[in-house]
Amino acid sequence: MTRTITIRRPDDWHLHLRDGAMMQAVLPETARTFGRAIVMPNLVPPVVTGAQAAAYRDRIMAALPDGMTFQPLMTLYLTEDTDPADVAQAHADGIATSVKLYPAGATTNSASGVRDFDKVRPVLEKMAEIGMPLCMHGEVTTSDVDIFDREAVFIETVLDPIRRATPGLRVVMEHTTTSHAADYVRANDQDLGATITTHHLIINRNHILVGGIKPHYYCLPVAKREEHRQALVAAATSGDARFFLGTDSAPHPDHLKEHACGCAGCFTATNTMPLLAHVFEEAGALDQLEAFASLNGPAFYRLPANDDTITLTKSDTATAFPAKIDCEAGPVTVFDPGFPVYWS
Ligand code: NCD
Ligand code: ZN
Ligand code: ZN
Q1: Does 338 map to a domain?
Q2: What is the Rg, in whole angstroms, of the alpha carbon atoms belonging to the chain?
């Protein structure tokens, strides 16, 4: 039996496109399905200024294959030296949609991130004034905090104090992985949103570690216990407008994932929407997929939803997704959910 659902075209509110040959290879995987994406600034060197963001946006548009439409929404990488006036100008000029906060050392290419949160206070105050959202990689980085606790400790010791000290600041907790994050969002107001990735709705920490280590399931924040995965599914399928899709699709060449010190990141741009249809159907909530993937994100960012639609089709035979995408630096493995998916 064939079954179809048609929804507004989705957007991706947290995406890594990289640059150069890697961007050329992965950009069509996103642009084929998504209308817009919040593009992460963690290049080497990072995208810090409005001018750098405008140049990066132009490189993305130049790499877009003929006939594809896609709008990159740019982010500025927050450093302790970021100039509030440059941020405000980039926002006013429509170059930068949001600012991205990486605690220094938290994840891939985060060395220029923030160590002393007091130093970025003037930028955050300016952002609250102009209504520009702050995207956060929400993990503390101190070695005494267990990696599985880093998100929960961040909420308590960094996020909540920053929000209390900066009334009106609009914050997106990105790639949330715990029930603590879902509960914190629910307990707060409309100025706080949260993205949830494709892979965190599917894997828990056993998938990474049981039966041999699976480097392609390793990402940051690392997947947690099953009860947390279930809390994320409940949040994503609830219809609560503060939860929306940010795939965090993060390509790394296989030789750097399958390595003694493997990179963090799952590459889900290719198959996210079929996987989400599967997850939402399993949860009995296919009717909430459009809100999560296509409506809640634009509402948070105060943008209109996309006008056009996509159609997802379920058939009796499992969908064959490409196992890898070819890049100049080597193949990039496409996220494998570990079960057959009948949606395409
Ligand atoms: C991301 C990357 O590779 O850039 N990796 C990841 O595991 N999520 C960085 C990030 O979003 O933290
Ligand atoms: Zn991150
Ligand atoms: Zn990311």
Answers
A1: no
A2: 19
Give the DSSP letter of residue 234: H
Q: Tell whether 204 is covered by a domain.
A: yes
Ligand 2 centroid – CA 174 distance (Å): 7
- Looking at residue 276, its pLDDT comes to 98
Q: Is the CB of 137 under 6 A from ligand 1?
A: yes
Domain of residue 148: give its range. Answer: 3-333
Ligand 1 binding pocket includes 305 (Cβ within 6 Å): no
How many independent structural domains does the chain possess?
1
The one-letter amino acid code at 137 reads H
Residue 1 banded pLDDT, cuts 50, 70, 90: low
Q: Quick check: is 341 in a domain?
A: no
Q: Which residues are catalytically annotated?
A: 248
Question: Per-residue pLDDT averaged across 103-126, rounded?
Answer: 94
Q: Which residue, among 210, 200, 207, 156, has the nearest Cα to 174 in the 3D structure? A: 200
pLDDT digits (tens, 9 = 90+) for 197-253: 999 999 999 999 999 999 999 999 999 999 999 999 999 999 999 999 999 999 999
User: Is position 340 within any domain?
Assistant: no
- Going by alpha carbons, the residue nearest to atom 6 of ligand 1 is 265
